[in-house]
Records
---
Amino acid sequence: MKEKILPFRQIEWWVVTFLFVSIILSNVMKSNDFYFSGREGVVYFAKLFIPLIFLASFYFVHMKLIPIFQRDKKLFKLIIYSCLIVFVSFFIVGAFSMGARFSNDFMMPFYFNTLAIYAGYLAIIYIINQILLSKNEIDFRFYNALRFLLIYLFVVIFLLQFQKIAEEFITIIFVIIIPSIIGLVMYNFFLIYGLRNQGRKGESIAFYVLLISIIAGAFISLAIAKNKPEFLVVGVIILLCIVAILFPLSNFFFRKYDNYLGQLNTLTVKVDQGTANLSFLRSQINPHFLFNALNTLYGTALQEQADRTAEGIQKLGDMMRFMLHENNQDQIPVEREKEYLVNYIDLQNLRIKEHENVEIIFNRTEDGCTGMIAPMLLIPFVENAFKHGISLQKKSWIKISLRCLEGSVHLDVNNSIHRSNDEDPEKKASGIGLENVKQRLNLLYPNDYELMIRENEIEYFVHLSVKL
């Protein structure tokens, strides 16, 4: 309630619907002895259909025309349709009102009073929105409470001028009983249930006893002042309803609300833990790739001098810039991920291209890849292929295919397997990369990726598809 505006258009609709349905039901129950003939029948149907006409008119204006105007900003359309609704409802209500003799004036003051009340409510809401919602920072608790208060006040004003159609006890319900129930529930939540949950049972009991004493004292005083013992009976009934029904029922919903908040906090903690795990996994990736690249440069420097080493350093610089500036982002362009992959494979080719028994095939989409992807999702599978698929003494191969389609990226890696240790520095690299990327895929793309891994004694195959 502090961080956002409540859906007041829906709230207003449900309040008005409850109000008019209550009026209609009360008229039905009170008029069940009518035989639907003569003036009594006209009055009966007038008390049913006039509230229905008002409710339908409110629905079309408040729930249809005004939202359409706020979306399209077509004032002329709003005026035309509003006038049409007023014209039709005016003649229908006027016919029933004159027939039931609710008014001898066809202009029906109560009809136009109702329009004035609704127009006044909209005007006040507009002014409040202009004043309060124009601020950069706003505590919406005050705004929401003010809107609820205005809804209540205008409902009371409407009922006071709708007396000929609404039964008196409907006014009593909305003006006295419902606010009293809300007040008792809030009293219970803050001063009885709330204090008890905080471990302040003594204060909770004191406020409970204070409330019972005030209500009992009020009805005892009325019975004495009016000399009517029936006030005592009414007081006992009200106290029983509060103690046996209202408070236990409200406590039940308060506990449900607390359980909901507990579940929400648990989910928040899990999300925070997932974010922390993701950050930790990313922190594992950077040194892993850095050491692999440095090992590659070390092997190149032993085999040859300046030209190849300079080229390797350039590739490494591009990779390190990628890791420093883009690896910590949530999403990066797929093209940048592809460039990093190309640099890595080129760097590996520098150190093994002189070995005739090693075959490296890299097929990739020549056109630029579009879309966004989480960084460092593709390279671990390629790195794993170079780690386990290359032997400098035995026949080896790595076949890589990278395809970028609209809305997805697909990587296929097929490599030979050489599990024995030799002089290749890749064999000594840490193996956290592959497990790392599996966890990241589960966190970031739980239902939007496909990963298939197959292997036998001589080769290893990986297929990865990610929906962007």
---
Amino acid sequence: MSPDLLMIGSFLLALLLGMPVAIALGLGGLVGIVAGLPPAMLGTFGTNTYNSVAKYPLIAIPLFILTGLIFERAGVAAALVRFAQSIIGPRHGGLTVVAVLVCLIMGGMSGSGPADAAAVAMVMLPSMQKAGYPKPFSASLIAASSSTAILIPPSIALILYSIVVPGVDLRALFAAGIFPGILAGVSLLAPALYFAKKYRWEDPEAVERPPFWPSLKAALPALFAPVIILGGLRSGLFTPTEAAVVAVAYGVLVGCVLYRNLSLRNLWGLMTDAAVTSGVVMFIIALAGIFAWAGTTLGTFQHLADALLSLSENGWVLLGLVMILVLIAGMLLDAISIYLILIPIVLPLMNHFGWNPIWFGILLAMNIAIGQFTPPVAVNLMVTTRIANIRLEHTIGWALVFVAAMLVSLVLVMLVPGIALWLPEKLGYVVGPW
């Protein structure tokens, strides 16, 4: 059996046996080295794991994870929900608009879908249940809406993409994710509002409208978070990695001083949680470095890319196949693992067909976002169903409705690259050819 097949086969077998993704990646890379390279190459194991994580931009990942936890526990979601309700007012489907809008704003603080799903579900689910929305519908909508966090900057997945793909400007990626993220949110609202009006959920006369000005005042600290992060990046005041430090400092200010829902003891616990989550992420990245090095040295990734190219020379056909592959992977794996496993394979295709790397990165992110609320794994849906105290299989019908809606937005961005590329180009970032 060829080293390529042994490497890929051992990785897939490890996943099927239930091994963690990080261990499966490291084992696959190790098998590839033993099968196809001189024994002395085993000495690169330690060097490659270190080199995979010893990258300055990766510092932003644990810091943005900490930022998301701080804003989640600071009570930001409750303030944003009240402010959104004061704008939307009482109407059929009003709470669905509030849920999507708050998820989009929260995505501009944490970059993590599961964190946003937890924060918004804790606040929105009781209100939506009281207004007559079925729990499976509400849990599915919040899970789908919070998946836009992977598109709205600062996105942890886009940070990793900018590191894995050479020459990609993270600021351009952040800017490129804004309009597709908003489009994804709007696409979710279409079926949500339709069903809310069809089934007469949320009686306008029974819903209280919070006063606007007090709600705005309470929400202002939260609303300023995305402005500070994106404004600082645009002005050149700080780099994306420095933006993560600023975001943590601002989150502490909001949680401890302005909202006063956090104490120094709470912060210690949050830092512990962030360290554990970051450790898992970095462990995956470290062992994925072995897999990537072995696959590149053996030529495995190029061989897989050549096999895909042999299926068709039509770029649109292969782009569709890649999107299907990523969607299936998104149902089973987390975003970080998908980027680390699939990018080395699809990178030769991107270069062969001249796909814009910024646009392609956003397409991958949108596809992975859909996977975050698509069973069987559906990490966001797992979070919201646990909070709603319902079984995940009860949400499958509603989840598939929202999957179809977001697929429409994905196809639009595929057909009209300007949806993603117009803003970074106008901001003066290098985006390459359309």
